[in-house]
Amino acid sequence: MAEIENILPLRKIIHIDMDAFYASVEQRDNPELRGKPLVVGGSPDGRGVVAAASYEVRKFGVHSAMSAMQARKLCPHAIFVKPRFAVYKEVSRAIREIFSRYTDLIEPLSLDEAYLDVTQDKLNIGSAMDIAAAIKRSIKEELNLTASAGVSVNKFVAKIASDINKPDGLKFIGPSSVEGFMEKLPVEKFHGVGKVTAQRMKALNLHTGADLKQLTMEEMTRHFGKVGTFYYNIVRGIDNRPVQPDRETKSIGAEDTFERDLSSMEEMSPEIDKLVEKVVSRLRQYQLKGRTVTLKVKYSDFKQITRNRSFTEPIDDADIIRKASLELLENNIIDKRIRLLGVTVSNFDPLPNAKPDNEAQLKLF
Predict the structure, then answer these.
(1) Which of 84, 117, 139 represents a domain boundary (last residue)?
(2) Biggest alpha carbon distance in the chain?
(3) What top-tier enzyme class does this entry carry (predicted)?
């Protein structure tokens, strides 16, 4: 399989990731916040969820998707500001305009990151590294913000590369280096491998890509299910997913796998609250409302169910989504311990001025 896949023409893929985007915009627009430990989202009284964290506050362990209460505990002197999603969206559009000078093959992942396919760039520059450097330079000069870029032959490796020299980084992983790079990569650095999956891998004595490479396709799927096929390919440097421009948003969701299985509504209800907060924050970021709420439950024996409820009118209200999620949970829960919960809103009715950027999926593994 690897031999067949690898004869496909090599592509030039850039992954651009803005550095602490929301927080950087706030610090840019308010000089008093520069150099300060800044949290965007949530409130000082511990309500809500962190949407973004400046690099100054990240030093204390604060990160996005964390509860504001936990952020306050980690950094008591943190400054909390309300998100300005309309502003971030306008800045994101300006960034997209810079991208479009070089290629029309742009796949946004969110307001602050995107894949670009520059195999055939519009200005005939040829060098993906030169294009990435030019994009970073324009973002700095025109918007007074910094971005990190990863350049490689596929999306997976480019995304990893963009994270290596953050902030304001630029990293190239060429075709001859991809497989060796993947072999040395710790399993927890693989995108899509979260804390729980990494622990399962390490329990199997799988610590690096080289360790994963020793498993057959059958062994991969037996241990990790369908995603095992993806791991099998990517550790060999194979990722033929194309850059897909202008993908319409289909659903927005959040899910979490728990370190300890849950067994009661008293334990699950606060987790549902956290998931709903994340989903609602994302809905409002994209100016979307949906008619269908879906609950996902995975039990300790890995059996999985989904249940949904639809509404006649589109919603983005946290209380309505929370109530629907809890009712679905109460009505469908069976006498098993639960290792994962997820909440998703779909069947969108976009607002008049909304321009969905991509198929957004916020997942916490």
Answers:
(1) 84
(2) 62
(3) transferase
Q: Is 17 annotated as a binding residue?
A: yes
- Residues 91 and 26 sit within 8 Å (Cβ to Cβ): no
Residue 284 shares a structural domain with residue 342: yes
258, part of any domain: yes
Q: Is position 5 annotated as part of the catalytic site?
A: no
Same domain, 30 and 151: no
Strand order through the sheet with 79-81:
52-53, 38-40, 79-81
Mean of the pLDDT values across residues 252-271?
87
Does 256 show up as a binding residue in the annotation? no
* 14 plus 157 within the same structural domain: yes
The label of the residue with tokens 């913000």 reads 145
82-120 pLDDT, tens digit each: 999 889 989 999 999 999 999 999 999 888 999 999 999
Q: What is the CATH number of the domain that holds 128?
A: 3.30.70.270
Domain co-membership, 138 together with 93: yes
Residue 357, domain member (yes or no): no
- At 204 the three-state DSSP class reads coil
Catalytic one of 26, 113, 255, 277: 113
Instruction: Give 120-135 pLDDT, tens digit per residue.
Output: 999 999 999 999 999 9
SS3 assignment, position 326: helix
**Token digits of residue 318:** 């946290």
Neighbours of 62 (CB within 10 A): 24
- Domain of 221, in residue numbers: 178-234
Residues 127 and 16 occupy one common structural domain: yes
